[in-house]
Known about the structure:
By secondary structure, this protein is mainly beta. Helices cover about 15% and strands about 45% of the residues.
Amino acid sequence: NSPFVIILFDLIYRRVGERAVLNSPVLPHQYYVSWFFERGPEIEIADVSYFGRKHVNPDSGEIWTSRLSISTNNLIINNMQEENFGTIVYFKFTFPYLCILVFMLVSMEEQRPFLIPGHRLSLNCNAETKRRHSVYWIKPAGNKASPIQGSVTKKAESQDNGKWKCVVKDNGKESEFEFFVSVVDFSSASKYVYTSTNLPLSIPFWITPKEFVQKILSNVETIEWLFTPKTSSTQQTIFSFSSKNGQLKQEDTASELSYKNFTDGGNFSLHRNLARVEDRGTYNCSITFTNGYVLSRSLVVDVLEITPSPGTELISGHHLNLSCSTGGPLETGVTVKWVPPDTSSLAKADFLSGHLIITRVGTEDSGKWRCDLRRNTTTLTSAVITLKIGEHRKREENMNVSFSFLVFSLPVFLFCNSHQRKMRQLRHRLCKCKK
Ligand SMILES: *[C@@H]1O[C@H](CO)[C@@H](O)[C@H](O)[C@H]1NC(C)=O
Ligand SMILES: *[C@@H]1O[C@H](CO)[C@@H](O)[C@H](O)[C@H]1NC(C)=O
Ligand SMILES: *[C@@H]1O[C@H](CO)[C@@H](O)[C@H](O)[C@H]1NC(C)=O
Ligand SMILES: *[C@@H]1O[C@H](CO)[C@@H](O)[C@H](O)[C@H]1NC(C)=O
Ligand SMILES: *[C@@H]1O[C@H](CO)[C@@H](O)[C@H](O)[C@H]1NC(C)=O
């Protein structure tokens, strides 16, 4: 009666430093299990039994004893080192069958902490096994990389930034290995910057990764901040920096924008305490690296402004035209919404047009009128004006006062007038004499 033997395979692909969990098949009530490692001489590394024994063999050496944890249902190898890769054999004595687990090393070429755009990006993923398997890479965007097995070599670009995945496929089973690539780039922020004439102007240009910032001066040749106003097509340079002299030069002093020390924190942002209508336009920051590669980022700045016509100080009953605009057509999906003061008779109306015409304003319309620029329900920015509406009656009183003033002062006026006339005649005469 020869014992029948069932051979089970389990394939586990791992990288150095990773952890592997080796699961036992379902166990009977009474069991004795031994785990062996087979690479060169066979060694018993651990065993468990139904008596409650959970034992790591101290003779297996530091490479195993420091990494193994054993339980009834599994054996865990933590922080795997090259010596731990190979075949692990599992024996169950009471009902003898064996289970072989094969481990293979996946290696990847060491990468620098970050890459300058244009430098060589090289990724290698190899499994040390004679088994038939396939290896491919998935790019950060989610599509498959080059058809060359296990290795990718190209010039680094912004799109290479992010999580690459190496996929090892063996016997229908896929194992994925993530790998992060960091290419110097502007941090991804929205292309549009919204502000208003009531708010600061902040044009965010950030460079990543942080580690690059310390090496900025040795890798960068020039940095330029350019501006194209919304109403013009002429590009003007606001600031320029050349690493040759280490001097940051302000080219367009009229823009009065300030900047932080970018060599300190990689913050290339421009700032002003209050945005102006003239700030509308496209801002472009471009970095020329020492390898000739140019990296640039453009941001479109929209400044919301409320224009009251004829003005903000009015008399009740007057006509008012309020216009809220970014100085051009709005992007699709972007809308304007007016928020009148709570006291206004128009407070509950829904104003969704940039132009608001109030044929007769009342004193209750005094206060803060806000205009929100929104995308769906998100407020992108807001502008505010304060209206001062005087009472119409007050104006009548004023007219009465001036009228009575006129009546009472009429004799004085006439007197002065006649006096003045006399003086003028006198002066006339004097002038004549002079001549
Ligand atoms: C970056 O610089 C801008 C302009 O100087 C400033 O407004 C912003 O707060 C800075 N950001 C950080 C995180 O320092
Ligand atoms: C900017 O920061 C760097 C690094 O901290 C420093 O060496 C440099 O002098 C600073 N430049 C200015 C203009 O403050
Ligand atoms: C920034 O300006 C430069 C010079 O005009 C241009 O070559 C580059 O394409 C611009 N960058 C972007 C992102 O528009
Ligand atoms: C209201 O003002 C805007 C801009 O100030 C102007 O385009 C529009 O024609 C004016 N409308 C009326 C009815 O006055
Ligand atoms: C915003 O509105 C647009 C259409 O106007 C729609 O396609 C989009 O899904 C909306 N986004 C959110 C976050 O609701």
